[in-house]
Prior knowledge:
Elements lengths: L1 H70 L8 E4 L4 E4 L17 H17 L6 E9 L10 H4 L3 H19 L10 E7 L19 E9 L4
Parallel strand pairs: 3-4
Antiparallel strand pairs: 1-2, 2-5, 3-5
Amino acid sequence: MNNATSNNRQNNDFFWPSYVDLMTSLFVVMLVLFVYSFKLFKDREGELKQANGELKAKAAELEQITKIRRSLQQLEGRYFRYDPTNERHELLVPVQFKAGRDEIQDSYKPALLQAGRTLRTVLKSIKTDQPVRYLVIVEGMAARYPQGDPRNAREEQTTYQLSYRRALNLLNLWKQNGLNFGQDRGIELIIGGSGFYGTGRYQGRREGDNKRFLIQVIPKVGRMQ
């Protein structure tokens, strides 16, 4: 009995320290897992807050852009027509260039000047809650010759330059009469030429109407650089 009692006492002496060590190890493991899980939770919480903030900012920008587009409806009327398919404005002044020429005839200049004033007035009158920049693209176009005319193939590349020069002459006309969009804060004007191509062209009997200007206004909401 004395030996049995001694053995039990020795077993107990070994068991409890081992048990305490085991529980301590488990506690340390659980503590590490808790700290790690808490860190993951906080990181995830931060990501969710950041994503939520970005979504709110995007929603605010979208709301501002929607308001701006509604305000741009003021352009529609005598000088501009909105093309909902291509989301741009067509300048309604019926400019007719001589074939292969880029000079704007004097008879069209008063209407083109008034169109420029209208565009500038509308852009400067739009009120927004956030800073906004406007990218204004003035695109010159050219009409093809009758179907089968060899000049269509021969002048295909040069009409890009021709239609660009037409847009450039419009810009210069505005500048010469005090409409320098480049000096207006928040407005950047870019000119281009699409030649015989581009989306939304008139077809068939209306091919000649492609001697025109297109105006595209792209609002950019956010901090001004």
